[in-house]
Structure formats: C-alpha cells, structure tokens
Design goal:
By secondary structure, the chain is α+β, with helices and mostly antiparallel strands. It has one domain (58-201): PEBP-like (Phosphatidylethanolamine-binding Protein), CATH 3.90.280.10. It is built from 2 helices and 9 strands.
Length: 204
C-alpha cells in the first residue's frame, strides 16, 4: 500500500514538470540545428567540363565592346573587313561552330555567314576566317563579309554577331540565298549560342 502511494506521488510530480508553464523556450544552439545543402559553386575555376557550375559561352571582339560603336574600318565607309572575334567556354558535344552577322534594324539583313569553323580554334583574326571554314552568301548578293552600311537618315542600327555551337554540321542548301541560309541556321538546335552586338549610326 505504501509502494502504490509513492508511485502515485511520483506520477503527479512528472505530470507537473512536463506540462505547459507559460515559459518561452530558448532557441537551439548552432550545434543543434540542421541545414539543407545547396548547390555548391564550381571548385574548378578553370571552367573544366563536369564542374558544378556551368560557364556561359562568350563572344567578344578586341575591335569594339558590347553595344558599342563598330569602328569605321569594319564598315562600308572604311576598309570593309571583318572584325576580330574571340570566344570562350565552349560546351561539351560541339562538333562545329558557325557565325552570322545581321542588321536587326533592317529585318535581319545578312552581312556575314560562316560555317564549318572547327571548335578547336578560339576565334577569328581581322579580315580572316579559320582554315576549313566556309563563308556563305550575304544579302548584297556576294559571298563573305559585307560591312555595316546603313542608309542615310535611317538612324542607329544594331548589328548582331551570333556564335552558334553545333552538335552536327548545318548542311545548308547550296543554292539558298542569304535570308534562307540565315533562317535555316537560326532554326538549328544549337548546343549553345552567344551574341555580341555593335552599333553604327547612319549619316543624317
């Protein structure tokens, strides 16, 4: 009988200690919390294949900066040669590169189409294309580079250089004109695309 009374008393003490007593609990210490891991940044800053963070393919020129005026030497008012281009961070699976340059303010008037560029090269020198590359037709009716030449009084024109990283040859139609060839190239499922835009102001 005495043993039962002692147990009953113990149960009352436990019930009181475990009940709500209007005191606020302290927040857990750092060692008591858990966190959900997030995607880690790439440890390989060299941009190698397989890093946790993918590097974006880039297209640049030493002749002009992004959204900056294209120097006269690359236009019909100057020497009319193609500007130097450089690219970096090509993705895996690229078998061929292509470059197109169009005037966005003239319904994508084609100034340059180049296909067959080996992915082993990192750019094109001024006025040159890599060995094995093929220059297609432009909207002036010739093959190769045709520099910016906006009509007088037409304002500021934006010229878009587009680099396409392709997983297979584009196989453009041999008799396609510049517009058809550009549209066919633009429809290809590129592994990656990089764009560099320059401007030329038309004479007033």
């Amino acid at each position: 009988m005495l043993r039962m009374t002692a147990c009953a008393g113990l149960m009352v003490v436990l019930a009181v200690s475990c009940g709500a007593d209007d005191r606020e609990m302290r927040p857990p210490s750092a060692s008591q919390t858990t966190t959900t891991p997030t995607t880690a940044a790439a440890a390989d800053t060299g941009g190698g294949v397989g890093t946790a963070t993918e590097l974006v393919m880039q297209l640049t020129s030493t002749g002009f900066g992004a959204d900056q005026p294209i120097p006269e030497q690359y236009t019909c008012q100057g020497r009319d040669v193609s500007p130097p281009l450089e690219w970096a961070n090509l993705p895996a699976g690229v078998t061929e590169l292509a470059v197109a340059m169009v005037d966005r303010d003239a319904e994508n008037f084609v100034h340059w189409l180049v296909t067959g560029i080996p992915p082993t090269v990192g750019g094109m020198a001024e006025g040159e294309v890599p060995a094995g590359a093929v220059e297609g037709p432009n909207s002036f009716g010739n093959d190769g580079w045709a520099g910016p030449c906006p009509p007088d009084g037409s304002g500021l024109h934006h010229y878009e250089f587009r680099l396409l990283a392709l997983s297979e040859p584009p196989n453009l139609e041999a008799d396609a004109d510049a517009t058809a060839a550009y549209e066919q190239l633009a429809r290809l499922p590129a592994v990656a695309t990089a764009i560099l835009t320059g401007t030329v102001a038309a004479a007033s």
